[in-house]
Amino acid sequence: MNGWHELAAVLIFALTYALISGRQIRILPLNRPAAVLLGTVLMVTLGVMTPEQAYRSVDYDTLVLLLGMMLIAAYLHLAGFFGWAADFILRHAGTPQRLLLLVIVTAATLSAVLVNDTVCLLLTPLVVAVIVRGRLPLFPYLMALATSANIGSVATLVGNPQNMIIGNMSHLRFLSFSASLLPAAVLGLAINYAVLRIGFRKILADAKIQDNRPDNAVGAPTLDKKLVAKIVMVLALVFVGFCAERWTKLPLAWTASAGAALIMVVARRDTHEVLKLVDWHLLVFFAGLFVVVAGLNGTGLPEELYTRLRGLFGYSVAAQACNLGWFSVAGSNIFSNVPFVLVAGKWIGNFARPELMWKVLALATTLAGNLTILGSVANIIVVESARGHVEIGFWDYAKYGVPITVLTTISGIALLLMVG
């Protein structure tokens, strides 16, 4: 790559990042997928990459895995599971404090099994409806939903997009990853509940759950129990396949896709309706992002950056884990977690214990999403979906997001150092 191509790659990456990190600008009113697509086209048309190199740079395993999990979540949505779950939680919560805990547990559990962004997309309008119906303040529960979805997603390789990418780059086993990260996720959720419970103690103490439904409203949302049973059975098979990856030799992506295909066969539903629920914009976003980051990697700039920063990370395992942790939190909030993982993933092989550092990278880049509203797509989905009912400002969120991020990251890294 000559000097012009290197400069072009850096400028294209900078432009793409500027467009995806903030709001649309008047000169280029592009959303995130369109901005990344523009960057992809510029990489090829300006000669930074050939079309063949662009095709090869896409991590199709990540896209296929994301698609498979989205399809499974879509069938749960069609079965009425999310609406039923939200209604069930309200009816059995008892107190606002217990409702907060149930929202945290539900969001975290679903995000560990499905993709956190998809869970937030489907749960937010339901949580809003439930909380408004119960005549409760929205802000505590929206914070609980967003932060818990991020924390819960760290527990598995299919919980969020950056974990999927890390799984494909590192070739970590599903069970090995979860054995290390699940305890950190559980501890993080306990911290999350404590911070939110203390932070909102006055608001929750003055609140009382009521039923604000009209007299002519129907009861609980309809749940297609037969379809849910089929989906649960398929999900169980999918996770058995994830855990048995060592023996089946089938990548996580194709195990998830096999599960999605099986549900399509046994569900007996119009597949057009299901495919409409897939977030195709997100798939386009990640496909283009792979190309743009590959163009930047081709300049050698990330490797040069690591060479300059290598002394900063230290040489002992503990020092490298701690320094990679805070560096990942900062990098994820400056560059967004997925682009940061794509770049930082090239460095992990140089650390003392690469397998542990992959887990630290997954932990830190995921928990970093709770720092600010813009820290993760899940946060943006929750805040934007509820905008008609409550306005959550940057500092309103950061007041709770900063301590949650700091405490969960420190405790998570300490736990990883103990359990590996």
List the SSEs and their pairings:
Elements: H1 3-21, H2 32-45, H3 51-57, H4 60-78, H5 81-93, H6 96-113, H7 116-133, H8 138-153, H9 161-170, H10 174-199, H11 201-206, H12 225-243, H13 245-248, H14 252-267, H15 271-276, H16 280-297, H17 301-313, H18 317-335, H19 337-344, H20 354-367, H21 377-385, H22 394-419
Helix pairs in contact: 1-2, 1-16, 2-16, 3-16, 4-9, 4-14, 5-6, 5-7, 6-7, 6-8, 6-10, 7-8, 7-21, 8-10, 8-21, 9-19, 9-20, 10-22, 12-14, 16-19, 18-19, 18-20, 18-22, 19-20, 20-22
Molecular structure report:
The chain is 76% helix and 0% strand. It is mainly α. Helix 4 (60-78) runs parallel beside helix 14, helix 7 runs parallel beside helix 21 (377-385) and helix 8 (138-153) runs antiparallel to helix 21. The longest helix has 26 residues, at 174-199.
Write out key terms for the chains shown.
420 residues; mainly alpha; 22 helices; globular
Order of helices and strands: HHHHHHHHHHHHHHHHHHHHHH
Spatial separation of the terminal alpha carbons: 40 Å
Helical content, roughly? over 70%
Largest sheet: none
Number of strands: 0
Per DSSP, the total helix count is 22
Quick recap of the structure?
The chain is mainly alpha-helical and 420 residues long. The protein has 22 helices and no strands.
